[in-house]
């Protein structure tokens, strides 16, 4: 069951991403960043369900966000907003702790590939407030905690 659900999540994300790439090439002049934003909004809205069946879905999504950010496809502030507002209901990923997990993975990858000075500059220039991504009631530790 785990492998089937995990591959289903990966397949859905890959199909959404392929749709974005197709639309980017089909509609010359359309900002591909906007298409990626709509794709990520769609995937974030189903992340809670995906994690039930595929526990590493938040990590997978964090890796995808990191790639997009490192390649400078979407502005950092836009990604922070998507993660913060994401979920089946707006802000639900923060409440469940999934936003902290996704953001923690993003920051880990940026730090490992670009280094601490770059990460600190990103955090400062994008006015990233990490404490806003921590769930208000859950006390479990997350990957984000090491950056706070």
Structural description of this entry:
This protein has 148 residues and is mostly helical. It has one domain (2-147). The protein has 8 helices and no strands. The chain has helices spanning 2-26, 32-45, 47-53, 57-70, 76-85, 92-96, 98-114, 116-125. Helix 2 (32-45) packs parallel to helix 5 and helix 7 crosses helix 8 (116-125). Residues 1-6 and 20-30 have low confidence and may be disordered.
The helix content is 55-70%
Number of helices: 8
Q: Give the N-to-C terminal Cα separation.
A: 36 Å
Q: State which percent range the strand residues make up.
A: under 5%
Which assembly state applies to the chains in this document?
A: single chain
Number of separate domains: 1
Average pLDDT taken over every residue: 81
The total of beta strands comes to 0
Q: What's the shape?
A: globular
Query: Mind telling me the C-alpha Rg?
Result: 15 Å
Assign the structural class, choosing from mainly alpha, mainly beta, alpha/beta, alpha+beta, or little secondary structure. Answer: mainly alpha
Largest pleated sheet: none
Low-confidence stretches: 1-6, 20-30
Sequence of secondary-structure elements: HHHHHHHH
């Amino acid at each position: 069951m785990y492998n089937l659900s995990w591959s289903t999540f990966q397949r859905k994300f890959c199909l959404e991403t392929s749709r974005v790439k197709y639309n980017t090439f089909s509609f010359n002049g359309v900002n591909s960043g906007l298409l990626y934003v709509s794709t990520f909004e769609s995937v974030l809205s189903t992340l809670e369900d995906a994690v039930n069946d595929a526990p590493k879905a938040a990590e997978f999504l964090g890796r995808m966000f990191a790639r997009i950010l490192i390649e400078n496809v979407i502005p950092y502030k836009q990604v922070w907003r998507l993660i913060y507002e994401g979920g089946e209901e707006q802000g639900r990923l923060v409440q469940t702790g999934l936003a902290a997990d996704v953001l923690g993975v993003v920051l880990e990858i940026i730090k490992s590939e670009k280094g601490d000075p770059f990460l600190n500059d990103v955090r400062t220039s994008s006015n990233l407030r990490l404490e806003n991504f921590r769930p208000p009631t859950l006390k479990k530790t997350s990957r984000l905690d090491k950056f706070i």
